[in-house]
Write a structure and sequence with these properties.
Strands 3-2-1-4-5 form a five-stranded mixed beta sheet, with helices on both faces. A five-stranded mixed beta sheet has the order 8-7-6-9-10, sandwiched between helices. The protein has 340 residues and is α/β, with parallel strands linked by helices. Helix 10 links the parallel strand 9 and strand 10. The radius of gyration is 20 Å and the shape is globular. It has twelve helices and ten strands. Helix 2 runs parallel beside helix 3, helix 4 crosses helix 12 and helix 6 packs parallel to helix 8. 49% of the residues are buried. The protein folds into two domains: 135 residues, Nucleotidyltransferase, domain 5; 168 residues, ATPase, nucleotide binding domain (Nucleotidyltransferase, domain 5, 2-Layer Sandwich). The structure holds 5'-O-[(R)-(carboxyoxy)(hydroxy)phosphoryl]adenosine and zinc ion (ZN). The site of zinc ion has 5 residues, from helix 4.
């Protein structure tokens, strides 16, 4: 095999059009992200139809920018990687059609990547991390506690039974008037609040269970706000944000640490948009330090959706010989470990 493997990766599963050029599954030569947040803001969330249309407009300029920034041409690319699920079907199809067209025209291999596998793989960029490890994936659409047994080999230990953690952050943010996407805003204003001021519920579910539930804490916040309004009491948004964040982070940290003990694994990797949360990073750091566990998390830019993480995940598939055909389709509810 060639010494250097250069992969062009495309990510368009939600509201970011991103293209990256990644060398040897580690070196990010470029990672261009065109965010549509401003377009969706006024609707309070991502509008799928608008997302698809915007991806179509963005994809070619983003590809050109990624090539230029990496100082490479199409001829230098060894394979084309693309997110094929899970995500919004119309949005995924834009990236997939583009990836197939490029792979076909250049006669280069096509590698489809699972979006969550990408989030987990973001940890390989800045750290010398190797499986096995436990990954806590916390994003806007997913909350998975995963035993990463090897590259591309995942055992899902637990998942959310209702809202994803990022979704709960966004809904609570909306209820206290912070706008979309609320996660980073809750993170910011919590620093000025008292996290012990309101005792929101922690859902641990059945004994020994790795699943999560965030709809209860979200409803508790909404009820608390309604009660304050009925009593004509002022609400302190900083205290609500900090107390909500504290309740959510406590459950995530405790379940992750439990998994490391149960499986005898001393490495934890946080992944997904909410892994950018400063309270989660801080509490996970403290807990891991106490237990002698090695913790990694990506820089914020590699936590939220980006194509570099897709290029990293694809590299490990590329070296194993995984290739996809031109009939690869977008799978909106693709399961982790479900390779086709
Ligand atoms: O991974 P991601 O970019 O997209 C999905 O695959 O879902 O995650 C986006 C989610 C949003 O819900 C956003 O509010 C949340 O990540 N998020 C945060 C922070 N930064 C992004 N939540 C809490 N604190 C943050 N600092
Ligand atoms: Zn994501």
């Amino acid at each position: 095999m060639k010494d250097n493997v250069v992969i062009m990766a495309i990510e368009s599963s939600c509201d970011e059009t991103s293209v990256a050029i990644v060398k040897n599954g580690k070196y990010v030569l470029s990672n261009v992200i065109s965010s549509q947040i401003n377009l969706h803001k006024k609707f309070g969330g991502v509008v799928p139809e608008i997302a698809s249309r915007k991806h179509i407009e963005n994809i070619d300029p983003v590809i050109n920018e990624a090539l230029e920034e990496a100082n490479v041409t199409f001829n230098d690319i060894d394979a084309i990687a693309v997110t094929y699920g899970p995500g919004l079907v119309g949005a995924l199809l834009v990236g997939l059609a583009e990836a197939k067209a490029i792979a076909f025209a250049l006669n280069k291999p096509l590698i489809g990547v699972h979006h969550i596998e990408g989030h987990i793989s973001a940890n390989y960029i800045e750290h010398d991390l190797e499986p096995p490890f436990i990954s806590m994936v916390v994003s806007g659409g997913h909350t998975h506690l995963v035993n990463v047994k090897n590259y591309g080999e995942y055992e899902i230990l637990g998942r959310t039974r209702d809202d994803a953690v990022g979704e709960a952050f966004d809904k609570v943010a909306r209820a206290i008037g912070l706008g979309y996407p609320g996660g980073p805003k809750i993170d910011r204003i919590s620093k000025d609040g008292d996290e012990e001021s309101i005792d929101f519920p922690r859902a641990y579910l059945e004994e020994g269970c790795y699943d999560f539930s965030f709809s209860g804490v979200k409803s508790a916040v909404l009820n608390y706000i309604n009660q304050c309004n009925m009593k004509e009491q002022d609400i302190n948004v900083e205290n609500i944000a900090a107390s909500f964040q504290n309740a959510v982070v406590e459950v995530i940290v405790n379940k992750t640490i439990k998994a490391t003990k149960d499986f005898g694994i001393n490495k934890v990797a946080l992944a997904g948009g909410v892994a950018a949360n400063s309270k989660l990073r801080e509490e996970m750091k403290k807990a891991c330090h106490k237990e002698g566990i090695l913790l990694t998390y990506p820089s914020p830019v590699y936590c939220t959706d980006n194509a570099a993480m897709i290029g990293v995940a694809a590299y490990h598939e590329f070296v194993k010989g995984v290739r996809h055909n031109m009939d690869l389709n977008a799978i909106p509810n693709l399961q982790l470990g479900n390779r086709i």
